[in-house]
Amino acid sequence: MLGIGLFSQWYMQPMLLLVGALWYNLLTLLGHLMFPVRPVQEQLAGSFSQLARYLDAKANLFDPDAGDQDDAAFIDAAMVNSQLVAQLNLTKTTLQSRLRGDRGSRGTRRSLHYYFVAQDIHERASSSHLQYHLLRGDWRYNEILFRFQRLLNMQAQACRQLAHCILMRQRWVHDSRFERAFERLQKAIERLEQHDPDATHTRALFWLLRNLRAIDAQLASIESEQTLAGEDPQHSDNLLSREGLSGWSDIRLRFSRHLSPASALFRHAVRMSVVLCIGYGFIQVTGLERGYWILLTSLFVCQPKLQCNAATTGLAHRRNAGGDCDWSARFMAGALY
């Protein structure tokens, strides 16, 4: 092993590494027992934080003073959207793992509802394809653009506050100002339609307003769900999870599920062992001075493919075998230089 010469006895370094790994996993297990839904909460909070960024980026498309920065706003919205999609996929993976573990406890069902809300908000926010540059050119001095921009910024702030409440296990209260903002925006569009019946974008604005109302309804549903639950989120989430485990036989069953090639964790452990063994052997044979970069790169490349669903598991198995070796070889070659 690298650095084994720093110890007087050959077995000291492996023993210290093993003790450190056991201690880390013990602390992780205790954390999951004390806060069983904490990982899901963190992913959900990240999803709503990314939603807030995406809604802010969409609001910038309605900026009447954007001018020549039209392309920059579109690029920024596309970049934030890709990050949001990645975060939603990560949240889905965490929820699927949680559902397999606790068989759908009340806290997990609530988290699943939050995820569906975030997914629906994303779909509705990204479904409006308007010619924003034409809107700014025609209605640059009209209040419509300012009202849409302000409403999107308000919804982004609501998502940001919701993310904080999920992370801190607090009740979330929907802002009552939304209803007044929607009413005045609708009246502004109706007045615009009366003054200019031939306006080409009026109907599209009504559809956009409908989508924003649906987003507001989804946000309000979270407050309603918390009210109907009638419990303190901070108290309930700190309790030990008893809805999933029914005894030592259930614990043994769950451990045995990960002692088979059908388990993604088992495949990842085998993959990491083989790749690191090959990398260390390559370092010893070639005598590289900074060969530890090969091991670090292999660790980053061989991330577990937990996002694969049951329908694509077989394909993922075939890809992992060749793909990991190919990428590992490339990064090993890169580490030489």
**Mean pLDDT across every amino acid position:** 77
Q: Could you say which overall geometry the principal axes of the C-alpha atoms support?
A: elongated
Low-confidence parts: 232-244, 305-337
Helical/strand content category = mainly alpha
CATH class of the largest domain: Mainly Alpha
Structure notes:
With 337 residues, the protein is mostly helical. It has two domains: 113 residues, no CATH class; 203 residues, Up-down Bundle (Methane Monooxygenase Hydroxylase, Chain G, domain 1), CATH 1.20.58. It holds the Pfam family FUSC-like. Keywords: Membrane, Transmembrane, Transmembrane helix. This is Inner membrane protein yccS. InterPro entries: YccS_N.
Q: Secondary-structure blueprint of this entry?
A:
Elements: H1 12-34, H2 38-60, H3 70-102, H4 106-126, H5 132-138, H6 143-168, H7 177-195, H8 202-229, H9 233-237, H10 248-257, H11 264-286, H12 292-301, H13 313-336
Pfam family, one: FUSC-like
Protein name: Inner membrane protein yccS
Domain Integral membrane protein YccS N-terminal: 2-219
